Amino acid sequence: MKILIAEDDRETADYLAKGLTESGMNVTVVANGPDALFHATQQQFDAIILDRMLPAIDGLAVLRMIRAGGIATPVLLLTAMAKIADRVEGLESGADDYLVKPFAFSELRARLNVLIRRPATSAMPAETVLRVRDLELDLRRRRVTRGGSPIDLQPREVLMLEELMRNSDRVMTKTMLLERVWEFDFDPRTNIVETHISRLRAKLNAGFDTDAILTVRGAGYTIRTE
Amino acid sequence: MKPHLPRSTFGLAALASFALAIATILLGGIVYFVSHEALEQQLDHRIAAETGSLKAVAEQDGLGALAMAIARREDGHNTNGLGYMLFAGSGTKVAGRFDAALPRPGWHELLPFHDAREGANVAQALVTPLQGGYMLVVAADRTPIDEIDRSILMIFSAAFGAMLLIGIVCAWGLGFVVRRRLGRIHATAEAIIDGDLSRRVDRDDVPNEFDRLAETLNRMLDRIGSLLDNLQQVTTDVAHDLRTPLARQKQILETALETDLDADGYREAIRRAADSSEEILNIFTAMLRISEVETYQVREAFRPVDLSEVAERVADAFRASAEATGHEVALDVDAGATIAGDRHLLAQMCANLVENALRHTPSGTRIAICVQRQADAVCLVVADTGPGIPPAERARVLQRFVRLERSRSTPGHGLGLSLVAAIARAHFAAIELSDAAPGLRVVIRFDG
């Protein structure tokens, strides 16, 4: 996995580079807009982590130029501001995801993993049934079965399961599930996700020995393919 | 230096009166020219008409009859201000008392002649050749024209002088009044700059533009004053509210440093310290969110939002957690209640209200979320059957960092409801807290 990090804050860049290298990724670090643009257009990366504010050419402008150049590499935009307008502007400029500083490294890694696999997933529109091990989700009829027996789920439980199944083997964090299932861009103080996951887990696990959803401590939840 | 028009009151008034004086001169010139021309034409017309009738007499009845006609007019003082001369071919005057040398034929604007009473003078004259080399001269004295010309000139010169004088007096007077009023505003502003923030601009009892300006300035100063007070209050509150988690963090870390612990013990201390920083960050996030919403820039991104769908989504999100703490979440929404807004902020508003109810009410409480479509408004209502808020405290809980005494022990930073209030204001919505008998009812009314 080749990752380009464009971040002018040395400490953040080192922290990200160290963490991603330890996760087995091949990392290139640049600290300004022109370098980011040069590397992004000259090499093939699996994902780009782009700071919104970069010297010389700012992150958003780099992003627009990359996209205008026809490069579809997934981009995760980092920002120091939690402004609603910035988020909208970032996504409209062609970012695939958006993360506000300060963030936990586990959150960044989880989002990056989901981004890297995203094109492959969305390239199969004909897919109507998701299958992970003994779990099956009929996307059109919104029906779920485990080991062939139907499981009665609420619509949003199906949605949550769909996110987990589409991103099997990758960790979905609490905030990612909040964004994708309930479209919440804020962090409620109530443990919404935990409660819903435990309900979903209880429904999926009834009568089975193995846990359908795994909790990754300090990170989030995942469904394993094996 | 580039020349520029005056901008002071005195300069502007002086300029205006100067322009008026110039206009007076122009007007005078036009009146002078037009009336002068009209008089001249009238004179020419009279001369031409008289010449015509005398010429007819000469042609019909002969030159003798003409001479007699002239003499009759002069004797009878029937000249109508005209003078006559008839010259023979030899240049000898044969009739008429007008006293001038024989001019050449045609029109003469300024023909010198000798007036019996006034001496040398000029006249307007027409010289017409008649049969047998005779010349008829009909002339008119120009004195009346000159007199009228002089009167017009005098009148307008006086008017010009008066204009200038009045203009200067007005400019000075206006400048004085304006300067005195502005001076008072200026003095107030200087006093405020020097630190006396309570000073306000003096008001008149009579309504006028200065008074209106003073009133507006005073309102602006009031607004700035209240914002400053608010800022000061918030700064104090932020400092106070951050101290608690920061102090806790310091204490956790220092205790861990001074105590011999195993790896798990240290990890636990680090985790608790991290929780404290999380709490501090949450306060910052909430503060930033509130101040962002309060700038109203978010309004630029407003789109039609289905409030019913938002309420449904929030109810769904919290229902499971609510049931886990023995609360009940009931949903009653009218379908398709659409308003202009930001769907994320509206969801957060709704979520904050529900969380607030969850946190401050005991187990067994019912929380109802309603969206009502009315004729001219859409209402979001979140009501609980908990202990409610005393009427005196209701307005206060919408302010930043205000936490009622009985909630001191529960987690929270006292920003949830102030964010709700800020989001409501950004959406032009009115927020009202009332008694749900029992419990608290929050109504957010979006006017359509």
Automatic annotation (TrEMBL), chain A:
Residues forming coiled coils: none
Single GO biological process annotation from the record: regulation of DNA-templated transcription
Boundaries of every Response regulatory domain copy: 2-116
The keyword DNA-binding belongs to this UniProt entry's keyword annotation: yes
GO CC annotations on file: cytosol; protein-DNA complex
Name of the molecule in the record: Two-component system OmpR family response regulator
Residues recorded with modification 4-aspartylphosphate: D51
Domain (OmpR/PhoB-type) ranges: 127-225
Molecular function terms from GO: phosphorelay response regulator activity; transcription cis-regulatory region binding
DNA-binding region: 127-225
Keywords: DNA-binding, Phosphoprotein, Transcription, Transcription regulation, Two-component regulatory system
